[in-house]
Amino acid sequence: MSIIKKYVPKFIINFFLNLESFIENKFCFFVARRLRYLLFPLRYLVLKFNIVFVWNVAEGSGHIVSDIDNFLRKKKLGLIDKKKKYVFVRKSSSYLSYNFLKAYPDLFSYGVTNSFIYYLALPLILSFEELSIDVGLSRLKISLNRKDSIKLDSNLWQISKKDGYKQWLDYLELRNRSDNYIPLRRGKFDKKILYKLNLINNKYILIHIKTNVMNATAKAGNIKDFLPTINYFLNNSYKVVMIGPELKSLDSLKMLNNPNFINYGNSNHQSFYNDLILFRYSFLSIVSGSGIGWLADVMNKPMIYTNYWHLATPPYNKYIINLPTLVKSKTNNKFLKFKDQYYLYLNKLKDVGPELFPHDKYIPVNPSAEQLLDASIECINNIEFNVNKPSTNHVRFNNIDSNGYSKFIKSRISENFLKTNNNLL
Questions:
Q1: CATH code of the domain containing 222
Q2: Rounded CA separation 297/303 (Å)
Q3: pTM for the whole structure
Q4: Which one of 95, 190, 262, 354 has the lowest number of neighbouring Cβ atoms within 10 Å?
């Protein structure tokens, strides 16, 4: 795409982008609504060849891995017909899907990013529910009509927060039932990136610092809060790989001169395909309130998941230590109890639109540098000594909502963090 932008005039690129948008959002939906009868011969062929389209997989780094992991577990557990031929088709411009299929070419009977095939399939998927399976865990759904949802525009619907939460609970139950099944650890991984970054036969840590305030991130991450942890790993013979493009300039950091500190996120090597490989072979990752952390989660890799304020929706796997953002009231300048923060996200915010932090009433406070370092050491101890038994503090925290995520998940909040903030339990 960068080559196209370099050599093709912008007005030509915009023309084709607008044309693509018109075909997808206007023409395909018009055919599905008004010319449905023309699709019956194609419907017959799809049914005859036992084809089912895998549908509503969101084009986001966290969603694409969790949505497809959801599909694979349904298939593994026999909740969907294993004899069907499952097809995953996206537009040619679907960058994440293209890289995902490059890493996992054998997950579907047929998987492709091809606009012509996508526009051929889209009216069929929209017109006949029996031709597709919705595996998406996002609250956003592409559909002709959904009675259980709120219409955002002519083609996009949003299910309620309650129904969205139920989707994830169902998925986490599947993970609990198939805990030893880790399909996305096995892919067609070209290890060239590991050689290019000199990571072969070396333990390395991935670090992602999110500076874009949205969804689970209420406050931008500060590189200064990560420096003690980065230095700890560098001083203990680990390589540190910065992942994600958010921090475009790290010039002020002295460790740039350290050959074991690698700013991959802003290099020419960065791609979602390489992201998948780096997470697959990482020793540990530290991710700030971002969907990319679900790469570590679905691969059952160790991670510190930090700088997130959605206490009700942590990741799943047992090698993950959670280190959340706390919430302080502007009214009395006091931190919310964990229970109040938990339900602030679930019950108090509006049900339509993006799930943004309410900055008008509250102040987000990210974990300190010391807390992040403590959580990192705690995570390493969990890996080396297989520490899985929950403490009294963990049990108390999980009892905030015993029928929520805590009913299924195996990740847990940092023990040191809970001890420090015991008054919030």
A1: 3.40.50.2000
A2: 8
A3: 0.93
A4: 354
